[in-house]
UniProtKB/TrEMBL annotation, chain A:
GO molecular function: ATP binding; ATP hydrolysis activity
Predominant location: membrane
Lineage, highest ranks first: Bacteria, Pseudomonadati, Pseudomonadota, Alphaproteobacteria, Hyphomicrobiales
Keyword vocabulary terms for this entry: ATP-binding, Cell membrane, Membrane, Nucleotide-binding, Transport
NCBIfam families hit by this protein: PRK10419.1 (NF007739), PRK11308.1 (NF008453)
Protein name as annotated: Peptide/nickel transport system ATP-binding protein
Keyword ATP-binding assigned: yes
Highest taxon, organism lineage: Bacteria
TrEMBL record, chain B:
UniProt-recorded name of the protein: Peptide/nickel transport system permease protein
Phylogenetic placement of the source organism: Bacteria, Pseudomonadati, Pseudomonadota, Alphaproteobacteria, Hyphomicrobiales
GO molecular function: dipeptide transmembrane transporter activity
Keyword Protease: no
CDD domains, A to Z: TM_PBP2 (cd06261)
Amino acid sequence: MNVHLPANHIQPPLLEVQDLTVEFATRRGAVRAVEKVNLTLAKGETLGIVGESGSGKSVTSYTVMRILDRAGRIAEGTITFGGVDVGNAPESTVRALRGREMSMIFQNPRAALNPIRKVGKQIEDVLIEHVQAQPSDAKEKAIEVLKAVRIARPEERYHAYPFELSGGMCQRIVIALALACRPQLLIADEPTTGLDVTTQKAVMDLVVELARERNMATILITHDLGLAAAYCDRVMVMEKGRVVETATAEAIFRAPRHAYTRKLMRATPRGGITLRDLLPEEIATEMAPLGVKVPPASGQPLLVVENLIKEYPRQSAVSSLARMFGAKVAAPEPFRAVDGISFSLAKGESLGLVGESGCGKSTTSMMLMRLLDPTSGQIIFKGEDLSKIPARTFARSPWRSRIQMVFQDPTDSLNPRFTAARSIADPLLQMGENVSGPALRARVEELARLVGLPSPFLDRFPHQLSGGQKARVGIARAIALDPELVVLDEPTAALDVSVQAVVLNLLHDLKQRLGMSYIFVSHDLEVVRMLCDRVIVMRAGGIVEEGETAAVMAAPKAEYTRELLSSIPHPPIY
Amino acid sequence: MFRQIAKRLMTAIPSIIGVIIVTFLLTRVLPGDTAAYFAGPAASEQAISEIRAKLGLDRSLPVQFVAYVQDLATGNLGTSLTTGQPVIEDIRARLPASAELTLLGLLISILVAVPLGILAAVKQGSWIDHLCRIVATAGVSLPVFFTGLLLVYVFYYILGWAPAPLGRLDFFYTSPTTITGFYLIDSLLTGDIEVFRAAWSQIWLPAVTLAIFSLAPIARMTRASMLAVLASDFVRTARASGLKPSKVVMGYAFRNALLPIITTLGMVFSFLLGANVLVEKVFAWPGIGSYAIEALITSDYAPVQGFVLAMAILYVLLNLAIDILYGLVDPRVRIEA
């Protein structure tokens, strides 16, 4: 009898997860991190698992590999991989699968590698463990593996330590490590978070290419819906430990069925939309329209930066000591982090500072904040050259209150022993505004209202607040002294997209309302496009391109800007 | 490599100069009059001032200091008034005794504490973790003279497993030819097994006493350091690559956890070397700690200065050794050197 069976009946799926529930033992009893998750994955298929922090997407994949930490356990459900019951198999069986049949690559590749072992040796360890090589030919095979992940000069890189390699290069090594034994399944856990967009594209292209070449199944775990849609066949959306929707990448984008998917999709920064479009519809319609962009008032600009340079000496402790003893040691050529940049900023304008890591954008913002002294150049703020005031004494200068900052990491930039109210009040107390008692509290509550932080949260400590709430505290603190210029250093980089959407809208509305100017440092071009009037693209300490944001994004003049723009992952339907 | 070491030693010069100045001044401002002490309780005013003049203590401080530095430059550390020997000879005879005891104590301590710390970290919260905590706390809370006396009481008095606690070697034996100054090593080098056994029977008890005391910092640091490393990303990668647990723990985690452990070892060693006076007293050990204490009590300047200087130089060498070890363990340190 010849019955036509669907393809997946002829070949059982490579990975099948049924009703998986994972519990973590905590001090307050068991917490369910993942609940009733089902998924199947065939050979050669690519599945994206998308969700925000706490959605259980990483826990799911760790459970499949069975590398959960001690506190976690499978409470219910089964995991079958290539016919093996992973959930109940003895540890030795699962260990033989790891690295050989199923592998994983991680976020923060540099930390994922042993810092004191040559990368080549680390690859050898895996090859020898899974009997893919003997000690005699391990080196040769390790170099082959390095070649497979397109590492230039593999013989040389074999002897490198992770700290000698760039982030993108480290991720290639981690991929090499994962793919050394030609596994059937690759799990990529936020493999490009923290990498630059161009590196992200290179890494993702490599993973997809290798997967296709080897007919390998891939699970891509990410918070970036755009990335998942661009590289995956199917996408599974998770929220709070549950799967809310699974569909083909295209279907998810064309017709998202679940409300959460819709919310997530709206919140993903992408071309052709405004800040308000990031928010859920019902909220967006209630809010005031964005307002027409008023051309900045002509006249004196708020800030003029002229030929700003920051050099760092390249020196070792030994040579400086030798010089102390009078020895004549030639000073090595200094390193220029910022190489003579000039620009101006009008009142009420917001300027985006974009570039990849190491381009000097953070150094620039630190100098504008007067936390760092420039080597040369001028920072003219309201007609006064602030570069003349040393960074060391700037905190006592009256200008300090005019320029404030919102920092990248909302958690690390708050004193863990201060309540939210105390953090917000800090600049008021430091800059001697002479407010205290009920007046101070009233001012703090007013600031909290401005940033949308409900007043009951004011008496909480940072660890009792969510990421978005901490970001609000940071913003309230920055605007407490009614500054004229706020430097925002990647203020939303550590936040989930839905929270980012809210914070970006808040920042925009605050600017409109208080008439501040922004310098917005970011690596995310789409975010900059929505928030900033003008943009500066930096590379290697210099300005590559400058102009109206819309114009630069629509028709970039510099080759580098074009490269940056083309590296942004584009979901299939845009 | 040698240039690195030479450069590294150069950085120690300012601190050695500082030590010389401070010890010189400190011994001068200490209460107590050397001349009066040595003249005896019944001496006349004139006899005291004669002794003072003989010792050169009547000169002004700067003059005394210049004389002291000149002596130092020729390797003359002065003469001890109590032993009547040149200080350098005394130190040469006594420093190896202390160093041998301390090193052996430290070695025993490492052999117990490091595996205990690793096991406690790997099996966090298990009985071995609690054992580690109890052993470490008990060891550090008992004063060394008490543990020493207890051990002497049990192993010498009751069990008779150890000889009388009277120095480095029973008086039946002659000390081995001095090569390193360590009896255990010298006796082996000269092939004298008998003496080795005798030296060993004398040293193990005080060494164990020191080991018990130094268990705590080493075990605790090993545990803490291992816990931090075991929670790190690259250990997760190693596990996800299917490496054996033994490879993950010893090959990946432990080598990375070594740096703080080495730092602790250096600190424990230098601390023990100077502070094992009490153990030396209990076991009548002819070490440098008891020598310095006696000199201090009698306001005998030269040995105190000699002792402090010797310790300072030892500390510098120790730090150099630790830095070299760092470089061997961690390639990142090698670059910065």
